[in-house]
Amino acid sequence: MDLFNPEIDETTNLLPKDGTVNYYGKLFSRENSNHYRDILLNTIEWRNDEAIIFGKLIITKRKVAWYGDSPFEYTYSNTTKKALPWTKELLELKTIIEEKTGETFNSCLLNLYHSGDEGMAWHSDAEKDLKKNGAIASVSFGAERKFAFKHKDTKETVSLILEHGSLLVMKDTTQTHWLHRLPPTKTISKPRVNLTFRTIVSQ
């Protein structure tokens, strides 16, 4: 099922079962979206992401950064990152997202996709460091990209376009029952910055 309806209702659950995903559409004006995109591109401490797969270190073209309330350690793909202190702009965005969603977050994982050639394979955000069934708020700046969900058992899929300045929230049992991905595309040459605000449980 594809969801490209311009009439957006943030209370609608995009998933048919076993989880909750709400799309808020464009939360920021084009001017503000451009402002945050440019600042994040130039001020975040971007690093190429690393993963250990079948014992081999893989370094991605995609870049990442990890920020939080304290130097949280976050482990995924068999590698561990330590959170950096919040920047002014990240705190601004966190406050806006918390007020809009009614959720609270203590960290943010950022991804920089330089073009449509870079994407993310099917996965779920269910690492032990994350609050179980907690909300993950995904904010997008830059190139509009397709985002897809696939049910782990039924293989049913749901997809939508994440717009410049938009907000998507995944919560409840979504990560338990659904995979998600950002498919690569040859038609997009501009960068996309994605912020995923999360809650790390006490360590």
Q: Span between N and C termini?
A: 39 Å
CATH architecture: Sandwich
Helix content: 10-25%
Oligomeric state, counting identical vs distinct chains: single chain
Topology order in helix (H) and strand (E) letters: EEHEEEEEHEEEEEEHEE
**Low-confidence spans:** 1-5
Task: Provide the CATH superfamily.
Answer: Alpha-ketoglutarate-dependent dioxygenase AlkB-like
Shape call: globular
The number of helical segments is: 3
Give the overall average pLDDT: 92
Describe this structure in words.
By secondary structure, the chain is an alpha+beta fold. It has a single domain, classed as Jelly Rolls (Sandwich). 16% of the residues lie in helices and 43% in strands. The protein contains three helices and 15 strands. The strands form three sheets. Strands 2, 3, 4, 7, 8, 10, 13 and 15 form an eight-stranded mixed β-sheet that branches. The longest helix has 14 residues, at 30-43. The protein starts with a strand and ends in a 5-residue tail after the last strand. Residues 1-5 have low confidence and may be disordered. This is Alpha-ketoglutarate-dependent dioxygenase AlkB. Pfam families: 2OG-FeII_Oxy_2 (PF13532). Keywords: Dioxygenase, DNA damage, DNA repair, Iron, Magnesium, Metal-binding, Methyltransferase, Oxidoreductase, Transferase. Residues 104-201 form the Fe2OG dioxygenase domain.
